[in-house]
Amino acid sequence: MAGQTAAVTGSSSGIGRAIALALAQAGAAVVVHAAKNQAGAEQTAAAIRALGGEATVLLADFNDQTAQDRFVEQAWSWRVGIDVWINNAGADVLTGGAAKLSYEAKLALLLQIDVSAALRLSRAVGLRMKKRQRGAIVNIGWDQAEHGMAGESGELFAAAKGAVMAMTRSLARSFAPEVRVNAVAPGWIKTTWGEKAGESWQRRAVEESLLGRWGTPEDVARAVLFLCSPAAAFITGHVLPVNGGFRGAAEV
């Protein structure tokens, strides 16, 4: 991917950082994004530069449509165009202050960041890519949105990530044949929440995977890299599960 420019939303830590680093290792220059975590975004950019890559940091709170539009303009103008766009930014309603919000407030936040912002960004960037006659967009879904998971978190994430996966298929039709649009659907990935999850959740993550382990951010990053690379030139409108093979829902 040498000579290409990629933008990765929500790349100050976790899966987003792993994706940004994977793209940089493949030769892409990377727009690193964070809503507020500038220190984390700068750390991601520094890691990219340590690999010999090129990176810039842009902050934008996707609760604000004006900020979304400004981010697209700034990202696009950095190196005169974007070849790869990764919609990784998502609302964290499992840890931190948002975990204490009401069910309704969590739902509103997920729909705003994970769905509405991702769709608006995809349309804004996809239309530019289509006019330019090349580009790839990858969204982040969730494997269990296809099967269902009981409980508050399962309902909330199924609503948001199910929408992301559905819109991916429609965007692929809207922007074909010039632009490919795909999604990955991670399973149990050991991010910050996974590191702190209780024993029952640790056991469940292992038991629900045919490969018998948690996934890592790097596992997701490698799948994203494949989908936006020339190796996936004949793949669009696809949702790729990255879950070690879903064995079936285990009880907590």
Give a written overview of the molecule.
This protein has 252 residues and is α/β, with parallel strands linked by helices. It has a single domain (5-242), classed as Rossmann fold, CATH 3.40.50. 47% of the residues lie in helices and 14% in strands. A 7-stranded parallel beta sheet has the order 3-2-1-4-5-6-7, with helices on both faces. Helix 1 (14-25) links the parallel strand 1 (5-8) and strand 2. The protein starts with a strand and ends in a 10-residue tail after the last strand. The mean pLDDT is 95.
Gist of the model:
The chain is α/β, with parallel strands linked by helices and 252 residues long. It contains 8 helices and 7 strands, in the order E-H-E-H-E-H-E-H-E-H-E-H-H-H-E.
Which secondary structure elements does this structure contain, and how are they paired or packed?
Blueprint: E1 5-8, H1 14-25, E2 29-34, H2 38-50, E3 55-59, H3 65-78, E4 84-87, H4 103-132, E5 136-140, H5 152-175, E6 180-186, H6 192-196, H7 199-207, H8 217-228, E7 239-242
